Structure formats: C-alpha cells, structure tokens
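Quick one:
INPUT:
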C-alpha cells in the first residue's frame, strides 16, 4: 500500500494490524490505539501528519517505521526534515503570547473523569467566567475532540499540546476569532412516552446499547462505533446515565436526529435516527 502524510491511521491499521505497535513504539502516547473502541474513533480522524504533530516528531519518523512493516512511501510527498518545529503546526501564536503573559485560568478535569463524572458543565462554566484577555487551559488525559468542536463553534480559537501523556487544551476568544458556526438543531427533549412513540414509528431494525457502566470517554466512542455499523434507516436506542453533551454536536453534524428522555439523574434514554 502506498501512503503519504495525509493517509489516515485507520487506513494503515486496516491494511496491516502491525501498524498499531509500530506507532506505539514511536511515542507511548499512542498506546490508546490498543483499545479497540478508542481506536475506532481516534484513528479515523488522525492522519500521519497529525500523528507526527501529536507525537512531537517528524513525519519521516513515521514513514521509516511504516516502511519497516511493508508500506511504500509516495516519495513526492516526503519533505526535507525541519528542525525545532515540534508542535508548531498546532500552535496558535495569539494563544502562545497570552500564555507567556501569565493570563491563564487552568481547570484539571482528570479527577472528575476518574470518578466517572462528565466535566462538560464545569468546563462551560469556567469558560463563561473567563476574564477578557485570558486563556482557559483544560488538563486532560486525551484530546477532547468533541469539546473542541463545541467551543470552536462558539467563536473561540484553540490549541492542543501533549506533554508526557497529559493533554493541555487551550481556548481563547479574540477579536479575530472565527464567527460562531451554526449547528443544526436536531436534538429533541421528549418524555419517555413520546420517545417510545418515535421508537414505534421506526420501520427498520432497532439496535440497543447500554453505556451506563462505561468510563469516559468510552460511552461516546461506543455510541459512535455502533452508529457506524448501522444499515441505512436503522436506529440506535441508547441507555445512558446522563445527557451526552459532547456527543450531541457530533451527531448533529452527521445529520442524526436525537430524541432524549431524562428519566432521573442516573437514567437517560436516547433514540438516534438517520
């Protein structure tokens, strides 16, 4: 298989499963690829170029490892080595300048995640209280892609850095920030009875999944994984313990309708339709 810097990691793994250990050998951060559920969503989003940025190395380091297990590099896309550019492709100079000035509000969400709690409300609260001219720093153990999409859609710029398996995500709203992106309103809060009525309307197969006992971020990963396996017209019925705030914008962008019935604090039902 011929590859270049824009080849997705998921394509590499599909072609040759030895890709997983080859990439893990480059940087321990990529151990997440060993988890089938995390691999399903993360690998499909990340190119070789992205992975090199995350792993703080040159693209050619990846090319060399992948050549060892049989991949062929498209020579025309290979670029001369560049020095001292680790993470620069992902740096937002405006954010870097604000951080250097010390105007940073930091929020470590690892304790909340360790307890199985969703820190979304805490993060959005910190963002709302953020002083003008300050950067919000979120400390996490994985790159919060859905969160970044949500906050970027509100007009914030962002930057992600990986240091020894700790992920720092920065958000900053400036005069030059992009205008908020409109996300289609495809989320409907309903009663359980109304949700069951929508369920009865479904003409195709109904698939069920229970994610109540899974730790973050596995509920979201599991749901997205199941949705990718659905046939056209099938629906997914989800048993959750909370409204998945990170997931909803992702579903809307994929044009899924989501009906949500909140039974109590630990019991939420979702019906996700195409």
């Amino acid at each position: 298989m011929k590859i270049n810097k824009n080849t997705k990691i998921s394509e590499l793994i599909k072609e040759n499963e030895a890709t997983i250990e080859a990439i893990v050998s480059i940087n321990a951060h990529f151990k997440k690829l060993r988890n089938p559920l995390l691999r399903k969503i993360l690998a499909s989003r990340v190119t070789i170029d992205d992975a090199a940025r995350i792993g703080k190395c040159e693209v050619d380091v990846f090319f060399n490892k992948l050549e060892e297990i049989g991949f062929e590099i498209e020579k025309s896309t290979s670029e001369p080595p560049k020095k001292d550019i680790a993470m620069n492709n992902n740096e937002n100079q405006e954010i870097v300048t604000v951080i250097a000035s010390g105007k940073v509000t930091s929020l470590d969400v690892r304790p909340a995640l360790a307890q199985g709690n969703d820190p979304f409300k805490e993060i959005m609260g910190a963002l709302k209280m953020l002083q003008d001219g300050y950067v919000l720093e979120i400390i996490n153990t994985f790159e919060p892609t859905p969160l970044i999409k949500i906050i970027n859609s509100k007009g914030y710029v962002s930057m992600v850095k990986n240091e020894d398996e700790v992920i720092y995500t920065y958000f900053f709203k400036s005069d030059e920030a992009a205008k908020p992106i409109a996300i289609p309103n495809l989320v409907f809060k309903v009663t359980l009875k109304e949700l069951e009525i929508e369920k009865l309307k479904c003409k195709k197969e109904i698939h069920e999944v229970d994610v109540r006992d899974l730790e973050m971020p596995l509920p979201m990963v599991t749901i997205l994984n199941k949705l990718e396996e659905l046939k056209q017209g099938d629906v997914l019925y989800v048993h959750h313990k909370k409204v998945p705030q990170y997931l909803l914008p992702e579903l809307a962008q994929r044009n899924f309708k989501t009906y949500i019935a909140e039974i109590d604090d630990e019991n939420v039902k979702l019906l996700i339709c195409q």
